[in-house]
Task: structure prediction
Amino acid sequence: MQENELNIMLAELYRVDPTLREYEEQLKHLITQMTDLRPDSQFTPALAARLKEEVMKTVQQNNHLQENNFNFNFMNKKFYYFAAPALVLGVVAVIVLLNPVVRTGDVARTGVFNNKASDEGVSRLAANAFGVLSGASSSAVQNEAAPLAARSVDSTLSGELASVSSDGDMAVTSGVATAPGFALGLGGGGAMDGKMIMPYFDFKYVYTGDPIVLEEGSSDVYRRLKGGSTAARSLASMVGNLDLSGVKLSKFSNLSATNLTLTEEKEKGLMITLDFMEDSIYISENWQRWILAERDACGQDEACWARFRLSINDVPADSELIAMTNKFMSDHEIDLQNYGTPEVDNNWRLGYDIAEDKNNFYIPEYASVVYPLLINNEPVRDQGGNYAGIRVNINLLQKGVTGLYGLTPFRYEASAYALETSAERIIRIAENGGQGGMFFNGSETGTTEIQLGTPTKSYVQTYRYQNNRSEELLVPALVFPILNPEAFGFYGQRSVIVPLVQEMLGELEARNVPGDGGIGIMPVIMEARQ
Amino acid sequence: MAKILDDQLEAEMIIAAKDRNAEAFGSLYDAYIKKIYNFVYYKTLNKENAEDITSVVFIKAWEKLPQFKEGSFGAWLYTIARNAVIDHYRREKSTVDIEDCWDLSDGTDFLANIDRGLNLEKIKEAMSELSVQDREILIMRFWQDLSFQEIADQLGKKEGAIKMACGRALKSLKTKIPFALFLLLPGIMQICKKMN
Result:
């Protein structure tokens, strides 16, 4: 197939399934191989003529017989009147006898080939197809910990571990402790120090942005399809006959792989984990190949450790970081068709900016670049208001991209839900903290006003636990930026999220009422502070 | 691929052939012989079987033509061809649960070129995991060179549905064919071309 013809054909396919474009190179290879290997059918006009002669001979004979055997056909009809019931019974019997075989075949095909989830793209469902969403916003609060925890590993944990003293005390170094007002321990024991306790204070959100005009009607909520990977069963079938140290996998039934981890066995190699349950790919360092031998040998030598601490001047410009991750994505042919303009996660810089002793501020060893997932050209955000999508990590000390997470197939179902039309109600909920917002009862430092700016529309990742599975929903929402985030400091919020789906708002109104049901500070901590 | 009979003429030939006009049926044969033969051949990968089965297809078509009512004649003919292939293998391998014979085609025509035969076998193996219809669409598009519209006509489906199925099949196929094969094949093809 000529290149031009191939491109035209692919363009036709892209029009009906734009997600195919992300596999363009593979598809071109595949189609080229298929056409190159096209078997020669050896069809010739001579062959056609010879076959025609045979066929037409039979046709002529058959024509002659039909003209002379009308009565025979009639008799045949009479025969079938009697024979038909017996034939039907016979066919039914055969079907019943063959049923186990047919069923086995069908099950295999349903699981491996006809799974709807194996198709990329968005499947449209009827309105309200995901059931009641009102529980999703509260589940979201519980699930918020997951992405935050993951981020902390990338941006702070590694470096803070480097600061752990030899007796295992997890106290954070003084750089963070001198940030105004508070510092936070990572847990794991250690002396109770006033510096380790986050102060609590009353605060109230105040909307200071422009008037909000809401769209009327309904909007799609998206549910990510996962767990339908055909690869899981294919992989299990590939290894299902192995005899591993006396364990014969063939003796187990209905095997399916839940994950697969592969490692690059080379210097600065990577570890690739395919999670078939979540349909997600994680890439991280192959730790055995990213060793900083000199630092590992530092022992208790603080000066030695200090040599490996980054200064603010060691952090490359955003453009440089993005260039590194772009190259990584390009080198590994990771398709970014469904992702927006990458952005460096600079949340840590706020802490740096407000730190009084900047020389002792811990600069994270890892930087992250986020490629925001796009739905309807709108970036998706997590519960913290940060872009959600593919997060690519860079080890600044060893100057290399260490991997990514959040890479998932673009497979969603869409269902329309009614939107809230009252801007007043939305603002009221935003001023109550929105989705996942918290109020602390009691005050040490007086009430702090948190200013909310004009919101932007986005889709927000929201999690719902249903049928023993965690569902990921992308819900249309307004994201109110916090205009004075320094009031929260290093660990604070950057935005307030308010879903636009009407049925999700009731519980948010009922919750987050200042002075009524807010989170109280633990007495032991109160005592420690005194 | 240009149509040998235009729609109007084809409709007239069908009416005449239903009235037992052998000459009209001969015109229909001329219009479809290449498509049907190739369709059968790509399912069996055996010239002798393909010839036998193709003859059976047209003879059956002649016999059943009075029952043909409306719709695509080509689609109807392909259905006969599909069933004829299954019948052929069912007769030969009566103990096997035959759905569409793909796994049974022996590909003996390719033994002369071992590399090509091995690679074709890999493609065949990967395609065996596709649904019958998806596989047929790929064969019709890439081996028979039919346009999506022609395939839609022959299978009695909408063009968009065929494209969607084709995309789905390609997407599925790319995960089934080892990536190493992609890397190896161009080199192998170069060597084959030089040898020829």
